Amino acid sequence: MNGGTAMPEVMQFLFSGLTVGAIYALVALGFTIIYNASEVVNFAQGEFVMIGGMATFFLYAAGVPLWAAAPLAIVAAVVVGLALHKLAIEPARGASVVALIIITIGASIFLRGVAQIVFDKQYHRFPAFSGETPFHVLGATLLPQSVWVMAGAACAFALLWQFFERTLAGKAIAATAGNRLAARLVGIDTDRMIALSFALSAALGAVAGVLITPITLTSYDVGTLLALKGFAAAMLGGMGNPLGAVVGGLVVGVIEQFSAGMLSSKYKDAVAFIVILLTLFVLPHGLFGRGRIERV
Amino acid sequence: MISALRSSRLAPLLLLALVIAVAPSVFPSVFYYEVGASIFIAALAVVGLNLLMGFAGQVSLGHAGFWGLGAYAAAIGPTHMGVPPLAGLLIGVLLTMLIAWLVGRPILKLRGHYLAVATLGFGFLVTMVLTNESRWTGGPDGMGVPRLDVFGFVIRGSRMWYWASAGVLLVGVWLALNLVDSPTGRALRALHDSQVAAAVNGVDVARYKLTAFTISAGYASLAGSMAAFSDGHITPTSAGFLHSIELVTMSVLGGMGSIIGAVVGAGLLCALPQLLTVLHDYEQVVLGLTMMLIMIFLPLGILPSIAARFGRGST
Fold this sequence. Notes:
The complex is a heterodimer of chains A (296) and B (315).
Chain A: H1 7-38, H2 45-61, H3 66-89, H4 97-118, E1 135-137, E2 140-142, H5 144-166, H6 168-178, H7 180-185, H8 190-216, H9 223-237, H10 242-262, H11 270-282
Helix pairs in contact in A: 1-5, 1-6, 1-8, 1-9, 1-10, 2-3, 2-4, 2-8, 2-9, 3-8, 5-6, 5-8, 6-8, 9-10, 9-11
Chain B: H1 2-7, H2 11-22, H3 31-55, H4 63-81, H5 85-107, H6 112-132, H7 134-137, E1 143-144, E2 148-150, E3 153-155, H8 157-181, H9 183-193, H10 195-200, H11 205-231, E4 233-234, H12 241-254, H13 259-275, H14 283-297, H15 302-311
Antiparallel strand pairs in B: 1-4, 2-3
């Protein structure tokens, strides 16, 4: 590289890496919650992010203030998440892994198609929450919206942790994830808990979409790549491990921004794929995962 | 005679050949030859994909990536390297199978979602390279493809492509039917039902999955090359995610695990948009809905479901 990389540049890559990484972490966490509760890998996870961003934009463009548009968009995503569970996942109960992959991929394509019709095919953004004047930290610039993204993601993680540790519903989901039959035997309505996990995941995805749109823009087809990156993050952290999902997301984001800045920005989207392959080669259970013993 | 045909494993092949031979007599225009050729070429890729999905029970969401590799081998070989078109096609198939083998080796040791996601990523990577390396590929606008000549005989026009692609499809179906009936095919079906049971019975699960993956990549590459030659122009979208999904949908629609079902699925999905051009804006909605509905209500696919209904009475 041209005589070594200066400190401000490193900080710059780190800031932008942590910003997109926080988004990947939210997507990865969405995967993890549904996967833990129902062993379904929801390939439509990225579409929740798209719905969050697109619905907020169109409400905002229609004159709804941002502080009201964002929560409405999140509610819309939750409704879609619940519908996905009720109409597509529940009727296919007992289906094979292959069938479930095809159903959730189908749902993802379907939602993209609907978004094309209900919204449009353009790229959109709405204004940052608190202005565009960047801060200067250690020679690098930091957008106020980046702070919103990181703080927002941190809040979501904290709330989620509280929910799983402190509330009855959270513990019931955890029990469903641990052993569905045992959970049912102690009187937990496991179907409702799985539906709740879809709602939670959808909300997380939509929050990610609302937070990131002022920086990266949104369109009907942003979901697939986000899902791929979120999945890479979840795998790197160890499939099914919430802490792993968060760490994995941040790591994927940081690697991506550093390789974009120092190697080639054309191939920055390839990072997620390389992370997936390397994880499979070197540590198939991820950073925090444990090998599961399979019962026949 | 009909019962003798039914018991023969090559009966589906004969039936398919008959349909292909008779169909042109009802074609009202040359345009139908073109649709027919595009169905046969897509069906070729789906027959391969079906070996992987229907028999080995693994999902690939990046098969259009292999299709794209074949298509660009057919274009880049003759244009930039002076390779004869037919050699470009063959080199493309071999290179694609090598790449599939290398990529598949680490992935196929694991299950379901991992292959789906890794192949999804692989497809993106191929599209990215095809879009970015414009010196070789012409970038997002794509590039022209020379005509295919087979030892001096140039294949051109919709009619000729109809018969050429039909011939290749029949050979492809014949090879697939034989493979399914071979010890390899039995091993694949065993690991589809239960990987553990197959392993206990001495089936090298990872190796057979890799075999199916590599072969299916070869089919996709061949189909990609032929599509490139017959269209005369290619763009990176042929390697894209949506095309991968179309291939998966064709496989699911016709019936996973049915070789002829693959052809039926390809026919339905290729013909629908041609017949209902009004559907254009709703293409993705229809595609996604089809995938979900088939998997929920007809998980076996159209052909095996029909077969199950009619087969019940007669043994």
